[in-house]
Prior knowledge:
Elements: E1 4-6, E2 9-11, E3 15-17, H1 27-35, E4 39-43, H2 47-50, H3 58-76, E5 80-86, H4 92-101, E6 106-110, E7 128-133, H5 136-150, E8 157-160, E9 166-167, H6 182-200, E10 206-209, H7 215-222, E11 228-231, H8 245-252, E12 259-263, E13 269-273, H9 276-282, H10 308-317, H11 340-365
Parallel strand pairs: 3-11, 4-5, 5-6, 6-7, 7-8, 8-10, 10-11
Antiparallel strand pairs: 1-2, 9-13, 12-13
Helix pairs in contact: 1-3, 3-4, 5-6, 7-11
Amino acid sequence: MRELNIGGLKIPVPVIQGGMGVGISMSRLAAAVASQGGVGVISSAGLGMIHRDLANDYIQANIEGLKAEIRKAREKTKGIIGVNVMVAMTNFADLVSTAISEKADIIFAGAGLPLQLPGFLKPDSNTRLVPIVSSARAARIICEKWKSFYDYLPDAFVVEGPKAGGHLGFKNNQIEDVNYTLEELVPAVVKEVKPFEEKHGKEIPVIAAGGIYSGTDIFKIMQKGARGVQMGTRFVTTEECDASIGFKMSYVNATREDMEIIQSPVGMPGRAIRNNFIEKIKAGLKKPIKCPFHCIKTCDVSSSPYCIITALYNAYRGNLKSGYAFAGSNAYLADKITTVKDIFTELIEDFQTAIKQYQSDSETDS
Length: 366
């Protein structure tokens, strides 16, 4: 695997661990991935639930929790640490400012277009900015707006396809549409970004996400123009993952048929592992509740059968009777709890095997 360059940051293994909230990817998992030469990512979503003792209200606890997680990750590794912040979060600006002031190496921002993101940088900031998009059009708009208003271009793009876990940036009828596969999206974004790279002399690598599970998957998507990959689901079933063993085992025990598209209270489709909680929602057995958190701008509590942040927090703790686990389309492939180091070893070996197979096939064809 070739070294990945994000805004001058040299990443030895071009693997970014996806940000997974609530509590699934915090300092322990992020530090473990960073120590193996990838990019470890702390999800800022829901940290106020986990670090509620640090402040009197959820919003401030979220900020304090993010500070604590970044600092803990720094104590554990000298590798590259990123933070994932969703544009849809009500305190997006506070979390971005916190990540920058704590000197996170990279901010990954999705769940909306982060059009004002460069405006949070200070003259002495060294945090790189990477939007997460689901279309070439979104990438072009961000490049145009950032360059026009801030004289700044993204340091990379993450292109997230419809096989990802969690909230998806697609309509329900696009999720299985062949025109929206990652294999179609990556070349389109690479093509859209290339003129900006050439005109302004800045490398803007495209990173593929959503359904990437093996070294062979990495090799194949790099053949489409990706220079790195983002993987979330693959790292859940590790000893270092911050989630409870109950959450991890929901992946190990899942089947292909358990991977389900649900409608989230935030107004977006999402992919999760089917369980009794989800079945009760579909049966109309869950009732709207008051929202004490106001964490997501688009969440309409008046018509929501449950609180998304509470459901995900319950799952993180292993209480899957009162929540559910978000997961990518390939989560069912996990059959044991392993380590981050073993996953990196397996990915690299599988990638090298894929190269040899490709070279062998090429020689046969010639």
